Amino acid sequence: MLPILKLIVDTVAGVLGGVLLLRFWMQVTRVRPPASVAQFTFTLSDWLVRPLRRIVPGMGGYDWASLLGAFLVVLAASSILLLAGTSGQAVVLIALFRLLDWILYGFMGLLIIEVIFSWINPHAPLAPFVHALNDPLLRPLRRVIPPVGGLDLTVLVALILIQIVQYLLRQVFYI
């Protein structure tokens, strides 16, 4: 019964955490989302972000309440491990690892979406939005890696680098 409960909680937490991380990243990159994305993001996350802003105001132009909200969501989802006998300290470390993992998977997802847009419909309404979200990741790589035969390989390099970071995180957290 515990695995089924964990699956349900992880799915709900993953969606909510992903939205909170997207909200934070949009603020970091100063990207204004299309109306549909904005409505979905803010409707799904305002109930948590607005109260957290009273405790953690935005500093340096960043929406820290969204990032804290994502951590609280992953911590709540990871607390199911307490039912399995995991210590509180281990649950906090696991939650921290999972948050970092969600961030990296989010970056990977955005990169894959950009590749799909470039293949199928580069003029899709969401394509400029996704490109703007990926630009801070790809810009430094594009300075170093020139196009090869007209192909931009920076997305592939970025995906490999993200996977290396994930591997190193697993080594640090022993997961």
Describe the model:
By secondary structure, this protein is an all-alpha fold. It contains 6 helices and no strands. It has helices at 2-29, 35-55, 64-78, 88-120, 127-144, 154-173. Helix 1 packs across helix 2 and helix 1 (2-29) packs across helix 4. The longest helix has 33 residues, at 88-120. 19% of the residues are buried.
Radius of gyration: 18 Å
Q: Give a count of the beta strands, DSSP E runs of length 2 or more.
A: 0
State the helical fraction. over 70%
Mean pLDDT: 94
Strand content: under 5%
Please describe the biggest sheet, giving its number of strands, its sense, and whether it closes into a barrel: none
Helix and strand sequence:
HHHHHH
- Identify low-pLDDT runs: none
